[in-house]
Amino acid sequence: MNGAHDLGGMHGFGPIEREVDEPVFHAEWERRCFAITVAAGFLGRWNIDMSRYARERMEPGEYLRSSYYEHWLHGLQILLVEQGLLTEDEIAARMAELAAERGG
Amino acid sequence: MSDDHQHHHDHDAPLPDTVLRVKALESLLVEKGLVDPATLDVLIDTYENKVGPRNGARVVARAWVDDAYRRRLLDDATKAIAEFGFMGRQSEHMVVLENTPKQHNMVVCTLCSCYPWAVLGLPPVWYKSAPYRARAVMDPRGVLREFGVELDPDVEIRVWDSTAEIRYLVLPRRPDGSEGMDEAALAELVTRDSMIGVGLARSPGAA
């Protein structure tokens, strides 16, 4: 399936930006996102092709605007929900709880 | 918007809700016993502190000093790399590409960001970025120039697009002037970028 992820040969993205002494992760959420994605993979409910397909289903504009670990996060949620391990509602509810805690 | 897009770094401000969503998924997965918090800590420590391009550098240095090893590596990279104990996730099917005076190899993953974790660690942001993925296959010479590598015009450049299954490691050319050096010293000359094919191994004394 082609889509925004199919970037080979596309024009207009400009120069490649590199960072000197780049850290492995740039934020704590990236560390956690990496770890929960890999650990959830150990459940054996999906393979790498399914993971990639889940990431590629991100809305194209959003795919290009977002970062690598955001693609991972999007894919992880799709897989968890499709496999019946979590529901959209419980994820939304937990996010609301966490937001309330942070706010209060 | 276009300005924002052009200057978007992988680590710029995440989309709204990203941080909350990560926390929500982690807490739900742990609560349901689907992931073990200790496993999360081990994974982060492994890929942040233990696995990285120094692994690949040892493989390359061995290939430079030991011709039988070099042949094993080119013949069955997964097996030859496993001789060091480097194996596992995202490196199950390795292929090593040898640079020669006539051919320079460069690796990209246009569709995703496939990368040989066991020998190079997790990929840098530029490797995962849209500009590299878009341009590596279209203008490799221009990309190399951006990385400070100017190859002779008659050197052929081959660009290898990684897949979910096959991961590539470039075997860079051993630099001139490194003849008397031992394996450990040679490994210090091997940069991450030289194993992706966007750089060359360092010259001795150039630090």
Q: Would you spell out the secondary-structure blueprint of this structure?
A:
The complex is a heterodimer of chains A (104) and B (207).
Chain A: H1 28-41, H2 48-56, H3 60-65, H4 68-82, H5 88-103
Chain B: H1 2-6, H2 18-31, H3 37-50, H4 53-65, H5 67-75, H6 77-82, E1 93-98, E2 103-108, H7 117-120, H8 125-128, H9 130-135, H10 140-146, E3 156-161, E4 166-171, H11 183-187, H12 192-196
Parallel strand pairs in B: 1-4, 2-3
Walk me through the structure.
- The complex is a heterodimer of chains A (104) and B (207).
- Helix content of chain A is 58%, strand content 0%.
- Chain A has helices at residues 28-41, 48-56, 60-65, 68-82, 88-103.
- The termini of chain A are far apart.
- Chain A has a domain at 47-102: Nitrile hydratase, beta subunit (Cyclin A, domain 1).
- By secondary structure, chain A is mainly α.
- The model of chain A has no long low-confidence stretch (mean pLDDT 90).
- The longest helix of chain A is centred in the C-terminal third of the chain and has 16 residues, at 88-103.
- By secondary structure, chain B is an alpha/beta fold.
- Chain B has two domains: 13-48, no CATH class; 52-196, Nitrile Hydratase, Chain A (Alpha-Beta Complex).
- Chain B contains twelve helices and four strands, in the order ααααααββααααββαα.
- In chain B, the strands form two sheets. Chain B has a two-stranded parallel sheet with strand order 1-4. Chain B has a two-stranded parallel sheet with strand order 2-3.
- In chain B, helix 4 (53-65) packs across helix 5 (67-75).
- Chain B starts with a helix and ends in an 11-residue tail after the last helix.
- Classes of the chains: A mainly alpha (104), B alpha/beta (207).
- At the A-B interface, helix 1, helix 2, helix 3, helix 4 and helix 5 of A face helix 2, helix 3, helix 8 and helix 9 of B.
